[in-house]
Structure to design on (302 residues):
């Protein structure tokens, strides 16, 4: 008897400090969604004026042990003073689980799911096993605003580093034989990574930073903020030899390209270009990690 083929859908989730970004792979098409990364325990409010756009979630998650109701996204921000944004010191927590399951519900998914999570470079090693433990298994998700109830079975979880996932969103002819440097500016934590001319991750030139994030820079104008942050990024990356030519095994200089991604990429582009003239603005800067993560997952599971 022929073995029954396992059917599943692939989703990538990037639970950022400001926004949760998620992408769904259906055939050869990618569909993406985003929502604010606020979460709060549900409580009775004075005026219950929720509509179909609100995220009032009831989560019953066996692997994580979460069995309660939450406000999520803008609904949490507007409803209670206890709403908290996605945590950055670690992604392996109940906050991330709630945001991830809410993202799956936004796509109205049910049944078997294989999931790719994106976490900061410095969190990758310590968060990967715990995230798998908290997410692999059965989850019941209900949106109380729409009365939509779904059950998902997460079969597997792949965890990738932020910014590094973007590498796999690039066309092969844009990376082949080149050193690729990726600057991903986040609202509370930024990530910087390098891949060599053979597509190998270069740990010594890659890092995460909370001090080089958009919300960490205070300024009187967006223009000044962009300039200040871009100068600080360049100074930090010079300490990791980004200002030095990358050489192959025989000491020959290798061609390099810098890609700029993240929610503020469009704002920062011109100022970053002053330091890195070969910088390119990623065509889908907000979802570049999610799209790259889907590419890795498709290669792994399809």
């Amino acid at each position: 008897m022929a073995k029954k083929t396992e059917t599943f859908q692939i989703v990538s989730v990037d639970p950022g400090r400001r926004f949760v970004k998620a992408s769904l792979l259906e055939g050869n098409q990618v569909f993406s969604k985003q929502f604010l990364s606020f979460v709060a325990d549900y409580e009775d409010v004075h005026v219950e004026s929720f509509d179909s756009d609100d995220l009032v979630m009831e989560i019953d998650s066996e692997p994580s042990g979460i069995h309660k109701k939450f406000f999520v996204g803008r609904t949490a921000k507007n409803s209670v003073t206890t709403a908290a944004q996605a945590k950055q010191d670690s992604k392996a927590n109940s906050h991330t689980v709630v945001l991830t399951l809410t993202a799956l519900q936004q796509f109205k998914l049910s049944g078997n799911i294989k999931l790719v999570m994106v976490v900061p470079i410095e969190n990758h090693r310590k968060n990967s096993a715990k995230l798998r433990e908290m997410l692999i298994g059965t989850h019941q998700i209900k949106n109380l605003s729409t009365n939509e109830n779904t059950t998902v079975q997460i079969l597997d979880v792949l965890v990738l580093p932020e910014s590094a996932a973007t590498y796999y969103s690039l066309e092969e002819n844009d990376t082949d034989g080149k050193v690729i440097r990726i600057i991903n500016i986040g609202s509370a934590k930024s990530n910087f990574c390098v891949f060599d001319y053979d597509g190998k991750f270069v740990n010594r030139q890659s890092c995460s930073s909370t001090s080089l994030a958009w919300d960490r820079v205070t300024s009187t104008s967006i223009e000044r903020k962009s300039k200040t942050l871009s100068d600080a990024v360049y100074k930090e990356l010079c300490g990791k030899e980004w200002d030095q030519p990358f050489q192959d095994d025989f000491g020959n200089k290798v061609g390099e390209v810098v890609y700029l991604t993240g929610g503020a990429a469009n704002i920062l582009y011109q100022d970053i270009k002053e330091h890195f003239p070969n910088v390119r603005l990623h065509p889908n800067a907000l979802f570049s990690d999610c799209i790259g993560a889907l590419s890795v997952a498709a290669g792994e599971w399809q």
Notes: The chain has two domains: 9-161+297-301, 170-283. The first helix runs from residue 74 to 79.
